[in-house]
Amino acid sequence: MASGSKCDTCDKKNSCGGSGHHENESEQERQARLRLQSRLCRIKHKIVVMSGKGGVGKSTVAVNIATSLMLAGKRVGLMDVDIHGPSIPTMLGLEEQSPLPTEDGSILPIQMGDMKVMSVGFFLRNQDEAVIWRGPMKNTAITQFLRDVEWGDLDFLIIDSPPGTGDEPLSVVQIIGSKNLDGAVIVTTPQRVASVDVRKSISFCNIVELPVLGVVENMSGFACPGCGTVTPILRSGGGKKIAQDMKVPFLGAVPIDPKVAEASDSGQAFVQHFADTATAKIMREIVKPFETM
Ligand code: ADP
Description:
Blueprint: H1 27-41, E1 43-51, H2 58-71, E2 76-80, H3 88-91, E3 110-112, E4 115-119, H4 135-147, E5 154-160, H5 167-176, E6 183-188, H6 192-207, E7 212-223, E8 230-231, H7 238-245, E9 250-256, H8 258-265, H9 270-273, H10 278-286, H11 288-291
Parallel strand pairs: 1-5, 1-6, 2-4, 2-5, 6-7, 7-9
Antiparallel strand pairs: 3-4, 7-8
Helix pairs in contact: 4-5
The site of adenosine-5'-diphosphate has 17 residues, from helix 2, strand 7, strand 9 and helix 8.
């Protein structure tokens, strides 16, 4: 790390990602580690969004957490490490975008308003292309996203992780270091089937010593498109109960709202595009505890 860099004065300089025991590393590895460390030092808060299973609205929640923080005046990055099913580019209408390289070999993230976005989806030749990668390749891609993307100074990096407790969340924790992550937001739906998986996600966090910032219960009731009244259609309260049982915070219950699906299908961030709806207000409440981190 160049002397006089921001890392010299950073209070996390000895604990941020890339540090540790490095006795046998080559000069090239040392440079890569210091580059990662200096990137991570410029990002104040790093939050992973996880879910026990797919289709519960994890990416939707990740997009709306990131956008809500941006609307609250924070400098935000959104990193999609859902390598086999990257949906962030579609949800934000960025499918046609390609990140550009910089002169020093970094990659410029896609700028969306005041938010910086990076996804494996930007590097696929077409939407239908499948990514067939094993663990080490995923680890390399995630390392590059953290080390080589020009994130700059951020207040928050929101990391959208694929469902489950596989390679990707583990790589994120190993590369950044659990002490340098603020924690995980776990998204679930109200039903009992989903709650079994969310317990596994919480257990994963406990094993890797990643704090659980809280549980979001998505698709919790149905918000009437006319009057906004929320009608419970599935057994609701499952997410809240798990949060209580497992002694982690409950961050909020987001109803099924056709406008949420409409926004993501048309490439708009829901909390920004439908800012005046009751559901958008619920989503923005979820990030309130983070705004004062
Ligand atoms: P996951 O990341 O868990 O696989 P997604 O965020 O991709 O799930 O959401 C799956 C689908 O459900 C998307 O079409 C999304 O627009 C829709 N969706 C998510 N949350 C809601 C909600 N609260 N109301 C209506 N549709 C939703």
